[in-house]
């Protein structure tokens, strides 16, 4: 029956999906192709592009700032994902157990979502005030440690300070996704494991984690792709400083493209960024699939 | 029933036909008839809030009175979105006839070929215009005059009068007196310092303009030479950087440590000034409006120190201005509109009613400026023969970041002043040469 359905080609079907295909082509495929094309060209006055070969890529790879931004972006992205997951897992597990007071649990579930509702500039403003050299946080820190921490002014702490704000904004969404995943695990699996004598750690390791693998892969891929191109929060807080310690690849692209109007160069940065994200995500999915196959 | 339905259907068709005919007639009338004699002149700006909507409309209507065949249409875009919007319009070949422009963006936009050279127009302008025009208000790039200022200003040291009076301190009149005043205000126990400086990377442009460039001119140096290449790694440049470095080293700058200061940008600087945690700020005349918006009780409390003098008494002359589009269909009218914006009529209104510092020498002599403690020395600072206009520079944000990064390395003791400036200077010249 399926074979028969496949053999019957319907032009009307193409008509139905045509709007979606045209839309996809116009807003995704065509711009991607143009960015790739521009990366081999140079923008000249009067709105025209001239072929420049690999010049943009050569210039990009010989730029020290590019490598600094790549290094910072990887630290920022991996740090954000690790902390996002650790925090989201910890809180989701806490919220998933039975609480003596259901209202209190629901209140915390709602309250913990609040950071996600803050826009990036609002979060930057809020944490900018908290991070002030003589601000609220430093008042407490000074009383405990005897000396304040220059969160945004010290090259040792600046990247981790902005990374934390990114985590603070991101983790509630991940927490909710994990919580949803945890609640969808059939309880009879835990009951059966309990009868077999499995303790909490064993149940977590052998039931919870395997059941959550697909969801975790989706979360990690999305978190990686969105954090790697993160811009607004860090731009508002530090603009890459001090001493370029928080300079990300997205700043490099923005400055070359939108401030210097070097569209060819910015396109090359965009292409490289897309390739890095695709390679990392592809490698992760490949390893994940291989492991799943091995388990099967 | 069927008859009734047909009747309603006919009626509907008649009404629809009539509406279509009227629409067509109106459309054609507007296209060929009613607007036939009117020339539409467009200009883009981000000044609606500063000038007020009624002032913008007055500017437009007063020009339309002078040129009855012209219909002026302005396009307001908030400053933060302006560059992106204008870029999109320029690429679409729909740039407005007259464009508000920042000197920081000018070189980038020139790359798109959107500017008409104003030099032939200004050199042929009538004496009424040229007698009110200071050539330092013109911005040149690659041998072409691509924008002229509407506003003009210099960056000086502003102070809180009440805080100075309470301490019984006279406002400083030179850089060493500034240091002395800073020592008197330094009180870490009360979290009080004399000044905050915009040395965070996010304020690299502010540091470059307010603190480095201004101090450099006073130290007898230049940012760029006649060829437009960076020359700030001079002895005067080293002296400039060492001056600011010595204030940090002495703990005279909020919050008393270099890493702490590296988190302070212009926004924090204004907050500290308006919260009266610091009594001084080196910035432009816009400080008054910014401070009063946050703390209306500061009214009458903000004053500009008398012009400083070191090796020279010069200051940096800067401002925001307008450019004429190379795509304009009516360049003569667009130029007339620019002259109108800079005319005595508009300039005096802006000074009188909006306290705006207009790029018109007659307006700068207006008595209200002399009476305003936040403005009174500005004409002197701008008119000083040693004052230098701001050079148009490519990728200014990038250049400022480079200077800021090297200055930060010096402040943190990772580089000496000369090496830091040599490195920044070399980067500037690389970018400038590439842009040419």
Distinctive features:
heterodimer, A: 296 residues, mainly alpha, MetI-like fold, two-stranded antiparallel sheet, 14 helices, 75% helix, B: 436 residues, alpha/beta, 11% strand
Describe this structure in words.
The complex is a heterodimer of chains A (296) and B (436). In chain A, 75% of the residues lie in helices and 3% in strands. In chain A, strands 1-2 form a two-stranded antiparallel ribbon. Chain A is globular and about 75 Å long. The longest helix of chain A is centred in the N-terminal third of the chain and has 33 residues, at 64-96. In chain A, helix 2 (11-38) crosses helix 14 (263-295), helix 3 crosses helix 14 and helix 9 (158-183) crosses helix 11 (200-228). With 296 residues, chain A is mostly helical. Chain A has 14 helices and two strands; from the N terminus they run H-H-E-E-H-H-H-H-H-H-H-H-H-H-H-H. With 436 residues, chain B is of the alpha/beta class. Chain B has helices at residues 2-34, 48-51, 53-66, 79-91, 103-111, 119-123, 127-130, 161-167, 175-185, 204-218, 235-249, 258-261, 266-274, 287-294, 331-341, 344-354, 361-364, 367-371, 378-383, 396-411, 417-435; strands spanning 39-45, 70-76, 98-102, 138-141, 144-149, 156-160, 280-283, 302-304, 316-317, 320-324, 388-389. In chain B, helix 10 (204-218) packs across helix 20 (396-411). Classes of the chains: A mainly alpha (296), B alpha/beta (436).
């Amino acid at each position: 029956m399926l074979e028969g359905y496949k053999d019957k080609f319907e032009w009307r079907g193409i008509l139905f999906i045509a709007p979606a295909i045209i839309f996809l082509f116009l807003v995704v495929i065509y711009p991607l192709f143009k960015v790739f094309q521009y990366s081999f060209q140079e923008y000249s006055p009067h709105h025209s592009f001239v072929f420049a070969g690999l010049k943009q890529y050569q210039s990009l790879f010989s730029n020290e700032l590019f490598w600094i931004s790549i290094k910072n972006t990887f630290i920022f992205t991996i740090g954000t994902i690790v902390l996002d997951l650790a925090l989201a897992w910890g809180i989701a597990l806490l919220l998933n157990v039975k609480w003596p007071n259901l209202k209190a649990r629901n209140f915390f579930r709602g309250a913990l979502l609040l950071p996600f509702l803050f826009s990036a500039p609002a979060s930057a403003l809020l944490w900018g005030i908290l991070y002030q050299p003589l601000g609220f946080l430093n008042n407490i820190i000074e009383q405990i440690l005897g000396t304040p921490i220059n969160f945004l002014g010290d090259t040792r702490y600046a990247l981790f300070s902005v990374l934390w704000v990114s985590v603070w904004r991101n983790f509630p969404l991940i927490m909710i996704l994990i919580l949803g995943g945890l609640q969808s695990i059939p309880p009879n699996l835990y009951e059966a494991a309990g009868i077999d004598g499995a303790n909490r750690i064993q149940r977590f390791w052998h039931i919870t984690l395997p059941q959550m693998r697909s969801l975790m892969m989706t979360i990690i891929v999305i978190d990686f792709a969105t954090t790697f191109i993160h811009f607004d929060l860090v731009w508002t807080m530090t603009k890459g400083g001090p001493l370029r310690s928080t300079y990300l690849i997205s700043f490099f692209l923005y400055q070359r493209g939108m401030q210097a109007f070097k569209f060819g160069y910015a396109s090359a940065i965009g292409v490289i960024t897309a390739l890095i994200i695709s390679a990392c995500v592809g490698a992760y999915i490949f390893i994940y699939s291989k492991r799943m196959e091995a388990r099967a | 029933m069927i008859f009734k339905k047909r009747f309603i259907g006919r009626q509907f068709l008649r009404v629809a036909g009539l509406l279509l005919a009227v629409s067509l007639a109106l459309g054609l009338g507007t296209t060929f008839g009613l607007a036939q004699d009117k020339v539409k002149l467009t200009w883009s700006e981000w000044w609606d809030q500063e000038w007020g909507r009624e002032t913008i409309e007055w500017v437009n209507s007063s020009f339309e009175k002078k040129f009855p065949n012209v219909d002026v249409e302005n396009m307001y875009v908030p400053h933060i979105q302006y560059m992106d919007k204008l870029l999109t319009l320029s690429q679409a070949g729909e740039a407005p006839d007259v464009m508000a422009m920042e000197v920081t963006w000018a070189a980038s936009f020139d790359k798109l070929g959107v500017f008409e050279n104003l030099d032939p127009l200004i050199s042929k302008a009538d004496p009424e215009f040229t007698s009110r025009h200071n050539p330092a208000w013109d911005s040149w790039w690659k041998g072409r005059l691509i924008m002229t200022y509407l506003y003009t200003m210099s960056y000086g040291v502003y102070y809180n009068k009440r805080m100075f009076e309470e301490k019984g301190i006279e406002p400083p009149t030179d850089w060493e007196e500034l240091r002395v005043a800073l020592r008197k205000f330094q009180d870490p126990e009360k979290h009080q310092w004399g000044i905050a400086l915009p040395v965070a990377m996010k304020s690299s442009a502010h540091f470059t303009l307010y603190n480095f460039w201004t101090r450099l001119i006073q130290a007898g140096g230049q940012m760029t030479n006649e060829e437009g290449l960076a020359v700030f790694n001079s002895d005067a440049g080293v002296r400039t950087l060492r001056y600011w470095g010595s204030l940090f080293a002495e703990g005279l700058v909020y919050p008393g440590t270099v890493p702490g200061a590296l988190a302070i940008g212009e926004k924090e600087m204004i907050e500290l000034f308006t919260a009266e945690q610091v009594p001084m700020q080196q910035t432009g005349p816009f400080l008054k409006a910014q401070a009063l918006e946050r703390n209306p009780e500061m009214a009458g409390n903000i004053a500009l120190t008398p012009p400083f003098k070191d090796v020279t008494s010069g200051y940096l002359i800067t401002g925001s201005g307008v450019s004429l589009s190379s795509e304009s269909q009516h360049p003569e009218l667009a130029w007339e509109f620019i002259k109108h914006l800079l005319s005595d009529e508009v300039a005096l209104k802006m000074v009188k009613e909006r306290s705006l510092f207009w790029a018109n020498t007659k307006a700068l002599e207006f008595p209200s400026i002399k009476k305003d403690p936040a403005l009174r020395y500005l004409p002197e600072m701008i008119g000083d023969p040693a004052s230098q206009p701001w050079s148009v520079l490519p990728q200014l944000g990038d250049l400022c970041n480079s200077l800021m990064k090297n200055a930060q390395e010096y402040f943190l003791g990772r580089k000496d002043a000369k090496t830091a400036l040599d490195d920044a200077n070399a980067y500037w010249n690389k970018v400038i040469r590439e842009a040419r």
